[in-house]
Amino acid sequence: MGPLLEVKGLSKVFTLGSFLSRVRIKAVDEVTFSIQSAEIFTLAGESGCGKTTTARMILGFETPTSGKILFRGEDVEGFRNRRKWFLQVQAVFQNPFETFNPLRRVESYFFETVHNFDLAATPPEAYSLIDEKLKAVGLSLQEISGKYPSEFSGGQLQRASIARALLANPSLLIADEPVSMVDASLRMSIVNLFRKLCDNFGVSVLYITHDLATAYYISDRIGIMFRGNLVEMGPTEKVLGDPKHPYTKLLLNSIPQPDPRMRYRTTIQLLEEQEEYLLEGCKFANRCPEKGKLCSEEMPAETFVDGRMVRCHLYGPDGDNLPERQGIKRR
Ligand SMILES: Nc1ncnc2c1ncn2[C@@H]1O[C@H](COP(=O)(O)OP(=O)(O)O)[C@@H](O)[C@H]1O
Ligand SMILES: [Mg+2]
Asked: Domain ABC transporter: where (predicted)?
């Protein structure tokens, strides 16, 4: 069977600044990956590398500048607005308190979804479907009945939003930083839930995170992004257990992250980000401890090293940018 989701050469260009100082950044640059059935694929990277933009294009909230998205081998542009798509692909967002209106009881969202998608023929059927999905995430209809969002903890409310996403039996969940607003002590139990949904119900998950610890724990394969590019991708134990790209190595030694609760990043961070996006060659070159002469000139091509894809001149066809080869003439 082919992959469930294929993203092929997906790009998004944003134009920033005013008329006179306009810059175009490729927030997502020719990104290609696929997700199999019953697989957890993680997109990881520090904030501002294009993860959310990629997810938003898959979900249809953002129009790609170029590239294709295929679902079960079919271009999604053909059936974006059809029920089939809504039933198959569901999203879980970062902040569950934004998913639910504070003035509405949480269970009303469940009944609304069941009604909108015609998921049950009778009220008792609706109750049992909702209860079943809530139980799959460790809650129950009885537990949530009559309660408003403020009466839940962040972790409980995120579980509820996952249960709601499961109502239509989707085959793909897209979860963008689903635990960054959840108490650190509860994060693992929520990411474990994705693993359980994948193993027990065959749901695939596109897990988006800047946190490699949770990614290591639950994902089958991982793609590391840096300024719009996938720089390394492969089985999680290979990429995180024995990283090849200097950026993956750096990320594993933990890059401090801005607090996700801070909506706006500082101007300095954003300027640095923009400058890196505009670099020629490898966007990581300026920060790379293993930078060679080619790095600021040419974007490295995808190469395959030890069971994973890596985009780095260290692993170029001739390996001629390895520091020890610098200055040695090509044969
Ligand atoms: N609607 C937009 N308009 C202009 N720039 C955007 C927009 N959305 C995202 N960007 C920029 O694109 C880059 C990638 O952002 P994003 O996809 O949110 O990254 P991540 O989710 O990895 O933090 C950032 O530099 C961000 O500022
Ligand atoms: Mg994001």
From this structure: 5-252
